[in-house]
């Protein structure tokens, strides 16, 4: 099967039922990253895109710890915090990023939408990356405690996700089960399952009539 598919990116294109922007259609989360480094100006662009995300009260509760492979000890430290399932492929990524949320405001109150806002910033970062031919794989599979210890993250700030960023590699770079996942089409639940109107579980008319 692998030989029949020359470009995994093609098999990953979203089979959208309604028109969506090509950036959304083409984004996906690879595990095979090319060795090619990410240019510093492109890294700055994806971080700048994150900066311009909306956030509750413009609180901007996001932080990014950036590790560029071969440039500092940070990449290696981020690798140390990865869970086993992500380790074999994510350690190869040219850039690893730890995202951290401000969970307590400066006045000591909980920052209620901090994780949501960090997610928005990562979404911005991800689509900017797609526009630059880069790929992002977000991960929850890491140890927040280990990350806190390694980077001396203070109370009031919580690690959220890790991101692997780079150019697309070849599925052949991966061992199973990762290789097969690299060429498996992406799937999503239908709109009717999660867009409601009137009461919980009742599909919204715009969706029901649009099918
Ligand atoms: C918060 C979050 C945590 C994730 N954690 C992991 C992870 O630990 N390991 C992994 O391989 N993928 C992880 N993913 C990637 C998802 O599995 C992936 O986005 C999903 O299967 C949809 O695939 P797509 O991004 O290619 O459309 C995570 C994604 C998000 C948003």
Briefly characterize the structure.
The protein has 211 residues and is of the alpha+beta class. The chain is built from nine helices and six strands.
Provide an overview of this structure:
- The structure is a single chain.
- This protein is α+β, with helices and mostly antiparallel strands.
- The chain has one domain: 3-Layer(aba) Sandwich (NADH Oxidase).
- It contains nine helices and six strands.
- A four-stranded antiparallel β-sheet has the order 1-2-4-3, with helices on both faces. A two-stranded antiparallel ribbon has the order 5-6.
- A hairpin with a 1-residue loop joins β5 and β6 (199-203).
- α4 runs antiparallel to α7.
- The protein binds flavin mononucleotide (FMN).
Write the layout of secondary structure elements.
Blueprint: H1 8-11, H2 22-26, H3 40-51, E1 62-68, H4 73-81, H5 87-90, E2 95-102, H6 114-131, E3 135-139, H7 144-151, E4 157-166, H8 178-182, E5 196-197, E6 199-203, H9 205-210
Antiparallel strand pairs: 1-2, 2-4, 3-4, 5-6
Helix pairs in contact: 3-6, 4-7
The chain binds flavin mononucleotide.
CATH architecture: 3-Layer(aba) Sandwich
Question: What is the CATH topology classification name?
Answer: NADH Oxidase
- The overall pLDDT, averaged over residues, is 94
Q: Provide the number of structural domains.
A: 1
CA(first)-CA(last) distance: 33 Å
Order of helices and strands: HHHEHHEHEHEHEEH
CATH class bucket: Alpha Beta
Helix fraction, binned, reads 25-40%
Strand order of the largest sheet: 1-2-4-3
Give the full name of the CATH homologous superfamily.
NADH Oxidase
Uncertain stretches: 1-6
**How many strands appear in the DSSP assignment?**
6
Q: Kindly estimate the percentage of residues that lie in beta strands according to DSSP.
A: 15-25%
- CA radius of gyration: 19 Å
Present as ligands are: flavin mononucleotide
Largest sheet: 4 strands, antiparallel
Tertiary shape: globular
How large is the count of helical segments? 9
């Amino acid at each position: 099967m692998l030989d029949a598919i020359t470009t995994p990116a093609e098999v990953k294109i979203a089979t959208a039922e309604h028109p969506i922007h090509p950036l959304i259609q083409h984004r996906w989360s690879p595990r095979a990253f090319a060795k090619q480094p990410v240019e510093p100006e492109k890294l700055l662009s994806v971080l700048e895109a994150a900066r311009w995300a909306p956030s509750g009260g413009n609180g901007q509760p996001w932080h990014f710890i950036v590790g560029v492979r071969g440039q500092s000890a940070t990449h290696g430290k981020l690798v140390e915090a990865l869970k086993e399932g992500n380790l074999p492929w994510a350690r190869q990524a040219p850039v690893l990023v730890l995202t951290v949320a401000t969970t307590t405001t400066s006045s000591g109150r909980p920052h209620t939408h901090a994780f949501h806002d960090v997610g928005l910033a990562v979404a911005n970062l991800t689509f900017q990356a797609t526009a630059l031919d880069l790929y992002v794989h977000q991960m929850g599979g890491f140890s927040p405690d280990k990350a806190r210890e390694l980077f001396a993250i203070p109370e009031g700030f919580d690690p959220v996700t890790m991101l692997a960023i780079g150019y697309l590699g070849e599925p052949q770079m991966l061992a199973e089960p990762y290789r097969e996942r690299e060429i498996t089409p992406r799937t999503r639940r239908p709109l009717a399952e999660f867009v409601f109107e009137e009461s919980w579980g009742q599909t919204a008319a715009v969706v029901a009539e649009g099918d």
